[in-house]
């Protein structure tokens, strides 16, 4: 989920771009909003969020069209977070309270550990920003709380959208310089289902889909598909001890900034996705030793009737991407077998993305860049300008939580 605006919001109307135009009274929406806030400014306050705020935050998200997590899953983001347990006063986020003590705005704050040049970097991943319409002018204040927190050396916004991007630019966030984060690469694994979802989104009659369906299938029939190689794939039901050994080798041999991928962290990150069979782990091994693995995650949009799977991480001990193609082939077949509409993979380093795009997937453009960062340490900021330092994926920040 995004910070400062959740990309899964049905309304997608948070942001300064949404306060243009004039009301019937002749005031601009911005003037009307500011007047409303001014009337209650003495009583409105911003404070750190607490775990006991769950019910009000969930209600706030629900009435603004955002997906909500059950309380156990929401609290798990911090209670069982391996980094949070080491930081005594890390804020779980911030809330806006109105004059009646009701929560009318909120922003989550996840601690994440990275490794660069053998040094740990504590990063903050923003998540689940939401505000009621009359209080959306407090968005900048929430972002300032996020920026000026004392423990985080690096700030990540890994699922921004067209509403949040202008505010991030204004707050001096930068594009992650590696990967294409404004375009998705995807394969269709259920043409009829995807067409029905697209027609529902555009509110078009079904006969149009029936006319276009044969053409879409014909195009896909003549494109190159990922193929299996001679390597044996292992399907992993969980993250076992081999992943700790893999992580030790990976961080020793890769001279890039990597999010912590210890067994403990992976198990925390994907706990409920694995329990609910929404995550698939596939690996290549040499005996007990892992050589590479991928994590695929369900990323459906129920409001559109769309089912999809996203490649959220691929890591390998080898410099080449030879194991990625057979893993994609396996995932494509699994999607077809389960009737899932599409498989997508994007945002990876140029080497990984080039391999993905060589397999002739479809593409769709996003209205904005979706992955931003802000480094508070000048030396780190200078390092992170180099695209070669990054190995980004949807494992970063909150993009796959």
Please tell me about this protein's structure.
The structure is a single chain. This protein is of the alpha+beta class. The chain has helices at residues 29-40, 54-63, 71-79, 139-147, 165-170, 191-202, 206-221, 242-253, 263-269, 271-275, 324-338, 350-357, 378-383; strands spanning 45-48, 93-97, 103-116, 119-131, 154-157, 174-175, 183-188, 233-236, 258-259, 279-286, 289-298, 308-316, 342-344, 362-365, 372-375. The protein is built from 13 helices and 15 strands. Strands 1, 2, 3, 4, 5, 6, 9 and 15 form an eight-stranded mixed beta sheet that branches. A seven-stranded mixed beta sheet has the order 8-10-11-12-13-7-14, with helices on both faces. Strand 3 and strand 4 form a beta hairpin.
Q: How many separate helices? A: 13
**Structural class based on helices, strands and sheet pairing:** alpha+beta
Spans of at least 5 consecutive residues with low confidence: 1-26
Number of E-state strands: 15
For the sheet with most strands, the description reads: 8 strands, mixed
Mean pLDDT: 86
Amino-to-carboxy terminus distance: 7 Å
Pick out its properties.
401 residues; 32% helix; disordered N terminus; alpha+beta; 8-stranded mixed β-sheet
Short description:
With 401 residues, the protein is of the alpha+beta class.
Helix-strand layout with pairing:
Blueprint: H1 29-40, E1 45-48, H2 54-63, H3 71-79, E2 93-97, E3 103-116, E4 119-131, H4 139-147, E5 154-157, H5 165-170, E6 174-175, E7 183-188, H6 191-202, H7 206-221, E8 233-236, H8 242-253, E9 258-259, H9 263-269, H10 271-275, E10 279-286, E11 289-298, E12 308-316, H11 324-338, E13 342-344, H12 350-357, E14 362-365, E15 372-375, H13 378-383
